[in-house]
Specification:
This protein has 375 residues and is α/β, with parallel strands linked by helices. It has 14 helices and 19 strands. Helix 3 links the parallel strand 4 and strand 5. Bound molecules: L-homoserine.
Length: 375
């Protein structure tokens, strides 16, 4: 395999290092805007030098962001090159364009590192759906949020201090909003649901609530009631309808998610045959992420292209009924759905996920967290 590598940052450099030690693949050209010299690959600032090189059969995209990654990946597919990418924003956003295009051009497309970094989550999802119907996917998919929530819960840090630490450790992406407002998790659950269920979700139908407004007082309430707060994604299929959302969620102490430390991920699927299967590991970082990029390249060499068929456009209905912890705003709707109070926060009666998120849109400073469903 002869690889054109787009990007030489955290992930790109890791891919270069791992492939340098292999016989079956070689990075021959690297798109990089900085002055870098590599012993066995040509470094170029010109994407067209990679596109026009007919000896390059596979493009590995490790630039991140939507543009120009989209234009470069699309161009490479049209030129007949296979794609491996770790870019969840790109794949989630252009899923219903890039996947059919790759199929029509007869090229392969893999993106395992886009969800869970070093965890072989998407690969296993693709395998899982070959022999069973998947009912649910989701879990802790963002290491930065887990680091912040874990530091607040175990060490008693304020949100601002925990975020500053996550940034100084290099966990948070350039713009912390992508992580703390749940956008990164949103991309990941959309992509996971598309692959698990063989659909193409309408993005606007997937609501997201992040952790930006959580306070130390909220965390103290959760601890006092025996809960740990985590940013949890959910993708569910029930009788042919779908509920897909991202929100802070209270997990009972003793549940596996409650014990996930630092910046780790814990992602789960539930299938008709396997029941619950969970995957734990490093969701980010140079070598874990590059590891899965190289795994995808090996899969391409073995003829394993994409994970699932591309499916029909679907709107998530989000009619699950959940109780919520709500703090930071009040109105008649909230009052009419009040069941209890924890300090200054309201605990709601069961309300539809879609209704709670519609309310939050009109009260953007408020903090919400779903309570677990009592069996
Ligand atoms: N910023 C992400 C996280 C890593 O914190 O999990 C890349 O997906």
């Amino acid at each position: 395999m002869r690889i054109g590598l787009l990007g030489f940052g955290v992930v790109g450099r890791g891919v270069y290092e791992i492939t340098a030690a292999r016989e079956d693949m070689q990075v021959v050209k690297v798109l990089c805007l900085e002055d870098v010299t590599l012993p066995d690959a040509e470094v170029t600032r010109d994407y067209n030098a990679i596109l026009a090189d007919d000896t390059i059969d596979t493009v590995v995209e490790a630039m991140g962001g939507l543009h120009p990654a989209y234009e470069f990946v699309r161009g490479a597919i049209e030129a007949g090159k296979n794609i491996v990418t770790s870019n969840k924003a790109l794949v989630a956003t252009f899923y219903d364009e890039l996947l059919p295009l790759a199929e029509s051009k007869g090229v392969q497309f893999r993106c395992t590192a886009a969800v869970g970094g070093g965890i072989g989550w998407l690969s296993e999802l693709g395998r899982a759906r070959r022999v069973q119907t998947l009912r649910q996917v989701g879990g802790i998919m963002n290491g930065t949020c887990n680091y912040i929530l874990d530091s607040m819960t175990r060490l008693g840090l304020t949100y601002a201090d925990a975020l500053a630490q996550a940034q100084s450790l290099g966990y948070a992406e350039a713009n912390p909003s992508t992580d703390v407002d749940g956008i990164d998790t949103w991309h990941k659950v959309i992509l996971s649901s598309n692959i698990a269920f063989g659909i193409s979700l309408e993005h606007d139908s997937v609501p997201v609530a992040g952790i930006r407004s959580i306070s130390a007082e909220d965390v103290a309430q959760f601890t006092a009631h025996g809960y740990v707060c985590k940013l949890i994604s959910t993708g569910k299929r029930t009788d042919g309808s779908y509920s897909v959302y991202v929100q802070p969620t209270l997990v009972a102490q003793g549940e596996p998610e409650a014990a996930v430390p630092s910046n780790y991920n814990l992602i789960t699927f539930i299938g008709d045959t396997s029941e619950r299967m969970s995957f734990y590991g490093q969701g980010a970082g140079r070598y874990p992420t590059a590891y899965n990029v190289v795994q995808d390249c090996v899969d391409l060499l073995e003829g394993n292209g994409f994970y699932s068929v591309y499916g029909e456009k679907i709107k998530a209905v989000n009619d699950d009924m959940l109780c919520y912890y709500v703090r930071g705003a009040a109105d008649a709707w909230l009052e009419s759905n009040k069941a209890d109070a924890w300090g200054e926060a309201v605990i709601t009666k069961p309300v539809a996920v879609a209704d709670m998120h519609a309310w939050l849109k009109n009260h953007p400073g408020a903090f919400i967290a779903a309570l677990p469903i009592k069996n």
